[in-house]
Predict the structure.
Amino acid sequence: MFDIDLWREIFQSINKNRTRSLMSGFTVAFAILLFAILFGIANGLKNTFKEAFGTDANNSIIIFPGKTTKAYKGLQAGRKIQFKNEDRALIKEKYGDKVQFITSKVNKSISASFRGKKNDYELRGVYPEYMFIENNVVKSGRYINQNDLNNNAKVVVIGKVVEDELFYKENPIGKYINLSGIQYKIVGVFTDDEGDSEESVIYMPITTTQFVYGNNDFVDLLHLTYNPEMSNDQALAFGNSITKVLKDKFDVARDDQRAIRMWNMAEGTKQVELMTTSLTMIILVIGFGTLIAGIVGISNIMIFVVKERTKEIGIRKALGATPRSIISIILIESIIITTIAGYVGLLLGVGVLELVGPSLEVYFIKDPGVSNSLVFGATLTLIIAGAIAGYLPAKKASQIKPIIALRND
Amino acid sequence: MLKINQLHKSYKIGDSSLHVLKGIDLSVEEGEMVAIMGSSGSGKSTLLNIIGMLDEADEGEYILDGLPIKNLTEKKAAVYRNKFLGFIFQSFNLINYKNALENVALPLYYQGLKRKERLEKASYHLEKVGLSAWGHHLPKELSGGQKQRVAIARALAANPKLLLADEPTGALDTKTSHEIMAFIQHLNDEGKTILMVTHEEDIANMCKRIVRLRDGIILEDTKVNQVRAEQYV
């Protein structure tokens, strides 16, 4: 039942005891403000951390050949290992859907020119799947396709930096670019959010590259992504298994670390996961810490408020107040103050983050922010804590004999 | 109106207990004006607090207006206090953040009256104590005598059967004391039953009956010729 008189009593009490109301409000507002700011900063750190790892498929495995360091099966040490097209096919066939995407790659350093403008770039002969492994985005035109590979087509896809440097204000699609004396048709332009170096690259169908540079089926390295549903440990085991298969194929000793080398993102991912977990832990500790500080603060204030009002409670009881009316008047008052103050703290916190957020980027804090539901949850926790903290002393106060309360000066 | 039989009360002080009331027998009829006197420690305030249901007796019988007052729940005690009793304290005990009118209206709030009705009744009682012009002043803006008159108006607001006063003039100068006593005498003339604790002989003589307490028992219970306070005002 809505009792307007009760509310009138409460608002009068809040209004006439401004210092008390402001002090308790301040504690709550400050706790929520701190909570929002600390949480926001921690979130900002997390964002920076995430960003630093870019958007390269983080389930990548790169395998590249080296030289043997141990004699094995009658073969001498120092033998050079050479991957070929068949190795890609072997892995693809053997591991089936454990492999998400796989490309073999040929890398060359070339000099490219277009109408007198000239520059050096990295050339990569790849499969169409490479687009997903590198997370490239086609800006205009298209990417390399299977058709290009089948026909050894003389087509290339250029990075955005290449476009900017050689094709000033000109659409490169359909134009011919000269790479070390041979003309290739440009079919697409791509972007890569890892930055300029990854965009100063020219992609070519791997078959074309192999045909032009040596007319063989040699491969420089294998780049694949494992099925993202694999767990970290599964991915590590998967990588080791591939190495073993290749070592057997090339007659390399099992303990020879140099002949076939592998860079498995799962190792890094494990570290990243560890780091993210510890950051989350820190965030949780900070959050709980501030909340507990707030709860302790509001509890203290409630105890103080009840103490301060003991005499008033005595007077009210002498005039006929029931214990229930005493409790509700104290409790509702504390809930109102906590709610309003919590909301103010939330607004302030979000405002502060909004205001100083951009200038914090130099301190590795990017986009600091907290979700509203989180702060609402924190405020709600404080309100409930305040209510419990207020209820116990209020109940006690409502039970003191009025004569004792009245004697309290 | 009020009947007390063999009332005992003791307080615990550490391990020992202090026997304050050692079997009090007292009965008060309607319309009486009784002063309870005694030196400090005689148990007079304790007696008044038990009569006022602010405190509970350990033993004995207390019947107020035909109702036995024993083992009351807090809620019931609150209702009885509100319905039967009006309190006047030595230190006024006004709520400091409420103005005079709101203080007077407070017992009516606990009676469940509507705001408009409360304020009407409160202004009526405030006018009766001659403070209608001061209704919107806070207690700190009033003199001691004015505060006590507000407290009297508050005690009267709920139209109680019994008015209990604990040293009502204890914090006032002689002139103001006499004014307040004159006012209380008027209330008694109109038929209110009044019970008052005091240690001042001249104030006690303004009542109609004096009960003297010493060491927790009634020493003397005499009717006196009331001295009218008006003559000093």
User: Anything to note?
Assistant: The CA atoms of residues 334 and 387 of chain A lie 7 Å apart. Residues 265-308 of chain A form the longest helix (44 residues). Chain A has a mean pLDDT of 84.
